[in-house]
Write a structure and sequence with these properties.
With 201 residues, the chain is mainly beta. The protein is built from two helices and 14 strands; from the N terminus they run βββββββααβββββββ.
């Protein structure tokens, strides 16, 4: 992983067992709260572990179901990389102002950052929803909830996402932590602050 671009890593969340809930026809709303999100933003910390490599930093994320902007920062708050993603392409700009673009965000982030960032599913996964079937390469999700109805795990498109620290944000319930895992790659995000706009009842 490029030294300048190593900005992310992880530990694990141990969650209790619950009944598996397969979702074959994913409805628009899979959140613990009610309604859909027009615009969501969060600030937090991110950690990445892959094989023997690990690192950590900060993350600023904002977006909706059609576009998103991600800023990865060092632990001291210096920008490491910024990403702008839409249905057509993803553009990545590094700290030294090199620009890269591609249609496949996972392939681009794997090449430049050294790990795959699942931007296609992230707009739904960060708020505890399954990505709908019309998103490319998405399949039906399997979701596990606790007795309170809080989402503990979501498995979709070869990614397993573990959730924790659910909290009230306005009239919504949103997670305080996510751990995304695929193969040897683990990405953990601790969310320090949510900003939700345009949530409908």
């Amino acid at each position: 992983m490029h030294a300048v671009l190593r900005a992310v890593l992880l530990s694990s969340i141990v969650l209790g067992g619950c009944a598996l809930i397969p979702i074959n026809n994913v409805p628009a709303d899979q959140s613990v709260g009610h309604g859909e999100f027009a615009q969501v933003a969060f600030s937090g910390r991110i950690a990445v572990r892959q094989n023997e490599s690990s690192d950590s930093g900060k993350i600023e994320w904002q977006g909706n179901t059609t576009e998103q902007h991600v800023e990865l920062l060092s632990p001291l708050g210096n920008t490491v990389a910024t990403l702008d993603h839409s249905a057509q392409r993803v553009q990545l700009i590094t700290a030294d102002h090199q620009e890269f673009s591609a249609a496949n965000p996972q392939q681009l982030t794997q090449k430049i950052l050294g790990y795959a960032l699942p931007l296609d599913g992230l707009p739904w996964w960060v708020v505890g929803q399954a990505a709908p079937a019309d998103v490319p390469l998405m399949e039906p999700a399997v979701m596990v909830r606790n007795e309170k109805g809080e989402l503990l795990t979501l498995t979709q498109a070869d990614w397993r996402i573990e959730y924790g620290a659910w909290r009230h944000v306005g009239d919504q319930q949103l997670p305080g932590s996510l751990q995304l895992q695929r193969g040897s790659l683990t990405i953990r995000i601790i969310i320090d602050r949510w900003n939700v706009q345009g949530a409908t009842p």
